[in-house]
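Hi F.,

I've been meaning to write this up properly since the lab meeting, where we talked about keeping a consistent format for the predictions we share between groups. The idea is simple: the sequence comes first, exactly as it goes in, then the structure tokens exactly as they come out, then a line or two of notes. No screenshots and no reformatting. I'm using this chain as the first example so we have something concrete to point to.
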Amino acid sequence: MEEFDPGQNAASIVSVTDRVRPLAIGMPVTSVHFLGEIAAFVGAEENVALAGADGAISLAPVHGGGILCAACDGSRVLMGGDDGKLVALDRQGEVALLATDPKRRWIDNVALHPDGAFAWSAGKTAFVRGGKGEDKFFEVPSTVGGLAFAPKGLRLAIAHYNGVTLWFPNMAANAEVLEWAGSHLGVVFSPDNKFLVTSMHEPALHGWRLADTRHMRMTGYPGRVRSMSWSAGGKALATSGADTVILWPFGAKDGPMGKEPAMLAPLQARVSMVACHPKQDILAAGYSDGTVLMVRLNDGAEILVRKNGGAQVAALAWNAKGTKLAFAAEDGDAGLLAL
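Output, unedited:
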């Protein structure tokens, strides 16, 4: 990634906009994921657009209505819809129906485990299907806000009102509840399994150190945090929600307790999406004015990937090798950058 050197004049931002392959997805997009080298743009309703390296786009019909959630492990994208169905889309574009909610409730959260297990939720119920194909479920006190598997062991974090429930589906022991007042939505484990962080309905994050359940409050955002991404190696958590990328330090045993976050890539627009590079200390950031930047974490050097002037960036993802970046705005204007 030699073009990441800002050169003699660090004030003049480097641009790679001429190297982006534009993609006309033709529908509102809510997320993007890589199935190998194919970029899968998840639409707001019914379809996923699959874009190959040559820019050719094919549509895969996956739901009979709105697509409410998506998660990907590189070989399949799992999606839940307001049709009460959980489906998987693989690299060949094949769609498989995995589950149908018996009450036809919305399936609005999904999560994938590296060993092939997956989880989904409808209303107050979280479900897990392990490698043997057996379904287990757990009821929480209020509607599920988010799901995440721990990186080690089969342990599921279920975010809800007033906290997070940690559930081991294969153990009879009672689930552990991490309490904090308020509505918890997105939830992530740190890659080293030492911390758990939620995004909240209010403009804040909340975290716990799992060894002793000590609290970490991460506040000061002007808007709600809708996007979180761990840096390569898990030393930092990048987030949206402000007019800069907020980067919380997690390298030390206390995480961000008592520390200020780094603030990178300030613009006259709100950060809407963040995606850290899988191997290097680089991230991509999308903004409410349509801008996409690549940013180097150690010194904040920036590269312009997409100019402003469009709809808000709604989707951003790297492939597993970190050689391709895909992005899309809410209106379906999208692009693919090969590095």
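Notes:
The chain is about 0% helix and 55% strand.
Residues 1-11 have pLDDT under 50 and may be disordered.

If this format works for you, I'll send the rest the same way.

G.
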